[in-house]
Design a protein that fits this description.
By secondary structure, the chain is mainly alpha-helical.
């Protein structure tokens, strides 16, 4: 059986790792062993933070909705409850965009929610 020299394969693998670690600080971008460790860690961070990003944006949307709703004299929890009662099926992302960009439309939505919440206790009595 013929001998196989693997210099080309190893060089290609090392080059791939070093290309991916191009922006790292110090030897993390030039030394293969250190670059490989830093690259693996960076990929772990990237995987984790792709999920955390969704969490953080949802929190931002809720904060924006809460701020806009409090200007109208309600709390966030009352508003969300009223949305469900009024069968308004807008998600938090869209509500946040409306509250941030178009205050008049958001005020109209809040008034609809208030009307439904005011009518609900009368119907129960």
């Amino acid at each position: 059986m013929a001998r196989v020299k693997r210099g080309v394969t190893t060089h290609a693998r090392h080059k791939k790792v070093l290309d991916q670690s191009k922006g790292f600080v110090g030897r993390s971008s030039t030394n293969y062993r250190i670059a490989l460790e830093r690259l693996e860690k960076s990929l772990q961070y990237a995987y984790r933070d792709r999920r955390n990003k969704k969490r953080e944006f949802r929190a931002l949307w809720i904060q924006r909705i809460n701020a806009a709703v409090r200007e109208q004299g309600m709390t966030y929890s009352q508003f969300i409850f009223g949305l469900k009662q009024a069968n308004i099926e807008l998600d938090r992302k869209v509500l946040s965009a409306i509250a941030f960009d178009d205050a008049e439309s958001f005020a109209a939505i809040v008034s609809q929610v208030k009307a439904v919440l005011d009518a609900a206790p009368a119907a129960a009595a």
